[in-house]
Specification:
The chain starts with a strand and ends in a 12-residue tail after the last strand. The protein folds into two domains: 188 residues, Rossmann fold; 50 residues, no CATH class. It is an alpha/beta fold and 261 residues long. Helix content is 36%, strand content 14%.
Length: 261
Amino acid sequence: MSHRVLFVATLHHPQQLLKDRAAAPEDDMPLFPTSMGQHFWERAMKRRGWSLDVFWRNLPGFGPRDIRLLRPHRHSQRITPSKVISALMRRLPARLNWDYRMRNAALVLQAREFRPDILWLIGDNTIIYPDTLRIIKEETGCKIVYASGTSPIVFSHPIERAAARLYDLVLVNDYYHGIQWLELGAKAMSCLPVAAIDPDFHHPYSLTPEEQARYDADITFVGTLVPDNLYSERVAALEAVADLGLGVWSVHDVPDSLRPY
């Protein structure tokens, strides 16, 4: 059975997506960059003949919806003007943010045109209102899938919890996170690896001697290490084993103490 899926997501690596699209055939333009896990969902769904579209919720509500306007998403400890502005805007109730209101209106228009039977909402949503999801659900009859890799008690936002009763299915990495979403009102949950597993990509690779030397490590960490208020204990644990063959990989900034690794 074929489905029409409208993803609602944040584009973290716009430059990578532009690069991927430049190398892709015109009749098979990728929705997600190869650097995002959703890329593998997209590949699997296309193989099944599903029709896909994406709404980038981090594009401004005003002006052209052009991904070339976005910058890569990278966590750091530095205080920048954009961080200050973002922090101030986050203190506003989402419904009072005129830019967010325009983004929600744009999503409704895109859903009306695309007519999805599944609205696939990626976690860490601070922008899309519950009322917007309700309108789309009523007008298109779609089901809402919410995919998140974190606990709703620890990391979710009020706007996400307020919409929980609209989620027909929640996909989580941890079974108990799914139970928490059910307690918040979600209709069903399934514990799956949110980072998709694609046999064409996720398999052992043969490395050159140079690559072996570059990637060799007895203890490997892949993930996020900033800001301190969230990850100081994680950093301390890695510092404690730093001399035991540690390798650290992150798309975000890394504390000075761990940069050599």
